[in-house]
Amino acid sequence: MSTTTLARTLRVLAAPGDRHDEILTPAALGFVSRLAAEFGERRDGLLKERRRQAIRLAAGSPLDFPMVTSAVRADPAWRVAPPAPGLTDRRVEITGPPQRRIAVNALNSGANVWMADFEDATSPTWENVIGGQLTLLDAIERRIDFTTEEGKEYRLGERGRLATIVVRPRGWHLDEEHLAYDGRPVPAALVDFGLYFFHCAQRQINAGYGPYFYLPKLENRYEARLWNDIFVLAQDLLGIPRGTIRATVLIETITAAFEMEEILHELREHSAGLNAGRWDYLFSLIKTFGHRTDFLLPDRAKVTMTAPFMRAYTELLVRICHKRGAHAIGGMAAQVPAKDPAANEAVLATVRLDKEREAEDGFDGSWVAHPGLVPVCREAFDDVLGERPHQLDRRRDDVEVTPADLLSVRRISGPPTPEGVRANIAVALRYFDAWLRGQGAVAIDGLMEDAATAEIVRVQIWQWLRLRVVDRETVLRILDDEAVALAAVRPWAPVDEARELFERTAFVGELPLFFTPDGYSRHLVQRAEAQG
Predict the structure, then answer these.
(1) What pLDDT is stored for residue 411 in this prediction?
(2) Is the distance from CB of 9 to CB of 160 less than 8 angstroms?
(3) Residue 348's CB: how many other CB atoms inside 10 A?
(4) What's the pLDDT at 5?
(5) Per-residue pLDDT tens for 8-23?
(6) Which of 168, 268, 278, 430 does the annotation list as catalytic?
(7) Looking at residue 340, what is its pLDDT?
(8) Which residues touch 350 (CB under 8 Å, ≥6 apart)?
(9) Is 168 an active-site residue?
(10) Catalytic one among 300, 378, 450, 458?
């Protein structure tokens, strides 16, 4: 089937916006159509298998390292591809949504990598999705400089000192309802990947880099295999050599933690390593085992990276990555610098301890959410790496992790405090309010909250209600208080919608796997249709 024919079957179901025609060209839509035609049904089948696996685990099936792939784990010979240009030294990575101001600040921040995030840090309004693609195109073409109405200038620095761009598309669980292929929404991951790859892959190669990606929320090796097949076809269609794409997989689901080596193996010619996606990992753990009393987690603030099950997960990740020649990237420092000098020093001290621990454990780099944290993260890794770009030679053969170690939650389990319950409700309500208004990354009480952290507080409330460690009346009373407080400071905000989304996804017997599909289709799409 020709690209022209395929393009006719892909319909844009949104009103045209400023410069959208630069992204939604017939050729680009034809490219996305081809990906949807080839891989849409496979994606659907993998989502069905996710649900079946969730049912099996809820019924008591044990989690273990797969027996059928023991030969892959035992084979000492295979390695992933060597680091690609711009991805050799990754000691500091900064994350944020692909918005113009954030893009300029991130690229100029002194970080080695900017992870342009269409996933957790982006509220998936159509304007954000296509606007994000325009931001990336303009950044690569170096036409992103601008001046605000207040006269503040945003200018890119010297090309050689800019962070390497790595794009995180949305996860497999989301659809893009503004694009339809044969009458059905297109998987959002294929939209984000396809539009960026079509417009920017060759441009990045010409600039001396390549099309690089972060892959979110994978649950097993089959989902990694799907991405690898997508990469192969995409490169073939555009005449780009196989292996040019590089992808770092976020290990942020409990099932993926048992298949890290297999995920690297599936992606090996396109692999750039693994990342310890700590916040989504906690969310996945609660979502999977939250119905069990031995998986009762206390206040979010009390579940740190020093918890035994989190230590097991991160140390195993480093060991597996370095065994296979892959970068191991640490988790997000979500703190936001404070204006008060004393408070800011406390923030920096917290981040410093976190990054020093990761560097000493063998990680090759780590994430921060704010440009003000780049120097402290760099210092922590400089102290360990020195002039070396990474520490792939540090094998961590001393690490031995069992399935029981990965699931040893009971050593820190316990009920929440009243303050923890209120904090979760406040964060959920305030984040949902911002997300519904099109903002996906929000500074709340000194932390940069995104969809991953909002998911933690949502599922914790669900777990605490389900296990009856908190009663429904108390939660509703606190919710009333927080809704009134939010409406008082933001009378224009969709507080009622935010509250409805929270109740619909947390106050239920059967937990919705994510809040984003419900919030997207019920609120963001309907609002766009009403405005259109």
Answers:
(1) 85
(2) no
(3) 18
(4) 44
(5) 578 999 999 999 999 9
(6) 168
(7) 95
(8) 335
(9) yes
(10) 450
